[in-house]
Input
Amino acid sequence: MKRIVTAALLIFIVVLLIFRGQPWMMTLASALIAELAAYEYLRLANRNGARIPAWWMLCGTAVVFLFTLPNFHNDAELPALSMLALFLLAWTAFREPLDRVLPDAARGLFGLVYVAYPLTLVPMIWNRDDGKPLLLFLMVSVWAGDIAALYVGRRYGKHKLTRLSPNKTWEGTLASVVGSVVAGLAVVLAGEILSTYFGNTVLHILEPVWQSAVLAVIINMAAQLGDLLESAIKRGAGVKDSGTILPGHGGVLDRIDALLVAAPVLWCVLLLKDAFSLGRF
Output
């Protein structure tokens, strides 16, 4: 019951932000989630002997979001990440044993690339002309795939998928793909109904249905990879969950692990569509 209540509350907040939020709200919410997830990542990394400063990880996450604000150029994030990496490298060089310098600096930078940067893409996607339906499509595809994998895998799963996550099965994986496609197409159908019968284009999607189905599959594959990668990190750290902040769900990182890969993959798809003038979503 805790799991269902927590999930319902989180879904309500996300949908409310997508359709009623302001740009600063979306950025602030994404930044706060990133800070919590980055701290959980820090704890996992430090369990294996790393000594990444918490102040650097939290400040670095804030800086990455700072350089995504409208006053900064869109290409400012890469120089910011380089600056933060060099600062951490210098800090560890003067304070840590020399055999910890490179591993700690690398793990710290990876934390920003793995956690902070993907979440900066959420408000950037939202700010596009087609951002609201696109972001809802992303979230619904991720959520539905996760739910389908969980329940189908538990009931019908017999063939193990990978050693990275012993509970994952091929049956759950296939159900996840189907769940994402069905949910994604449901968003498309809802947009058509709103547009045709109510004249509301907030969810209207211009692309052919088959392109939406392909996009849902791509998002699902990225999301499942994100789930497996976080499982690998947790198993390496010897823990089951990244935290306990969300009743019935574990930590923040446990809830957004799929999004951390799905959002960058979606962003790359959008960049390719824009580069080759393939139209909006």
Summary: The radius of gyration is 19 Å. The beta strands are 160-162, 165-169. The first strand starts at residue 160 and ends at 162.
